Amino acid sequence: MPPHPPAHAEHAQVGTDAAAFVVAPPAISVLRQRADFLRASKARRAGTPGFLLQARKRGAQEPAETPLRVGFTCSKKIGNAVMRNRAKRRLRAVAREVLPDLGRAGWDYVLVGRPDATVSRDYQSLVADLRAALSRIHAGGSKA
Keyword Acetylation: yes or no (predicted)? Predict the structure, then answer.
């Protein structure tokens, strides 16, 4: 049985011996400490109709191969617990789809849900929002 093609086959490169190898996307870990969320909130921001993206490049004291980290937050303005959890699930799905391609290792990203918009906005629009927000963040973005 032949092996399955890599998940990110578009990143495949051909070496001099014509053997293909895959450039792995950056590893992703989840932010859990409140201090990490606060540091990201004071760095770069990019607002979209579906959510707010906050991002920061971590310091030089950390190794270059550190994974990118992502966090999700939805306040009570979103609604009850069911609505907040639904919003976070949608943000996690969008991040899972976009960050392996456009996220950068050594960066922290926080996606903040917006009332009414995060839950009701079309999924493909949320994906497009994250792509646009990441391009603004990495192009220099606005400082907060």
Answer: no
What is the DSSP track for the chain?
-PPPPPTTGGGEEE-TTS-EEE-PPPPEEE---HHHHHHHHTSEEEE-SSEEEEEEEPPTTS-TTPPEEEEEE--TTS-SHHHHHHHHHHHHHHHHHHHHHH--TTEEEEEEE-TTHHHHS-HHHHHHHHHHHHHHHHTT-EE-
Task: Please identify which residue in the block is written with the tokens 């926080």.
Answer: 110
Site of tokens 């092996």: 3
Cross-strand bridge partners of residue 110:
54, 71
Strand, coil or helix: what is 136?
helix
CATH number of 26-143: 3.30.230.10
Give the global pTM: 0.77
Dist. CA 5–CA 2, nearest whole Å? 9
Q: What is the pLDDT along the chain (144 residues), one digit of tens a residue?
A: 555 555 555 545 545 554 555 566 777 899 999 999 999 999 999 999 999 999 999 887 666 567 899 999 999 999 999 999 999 999 999 999 999 999 998 999 999 999 999 999 999 999 999 999 999 999 974 444
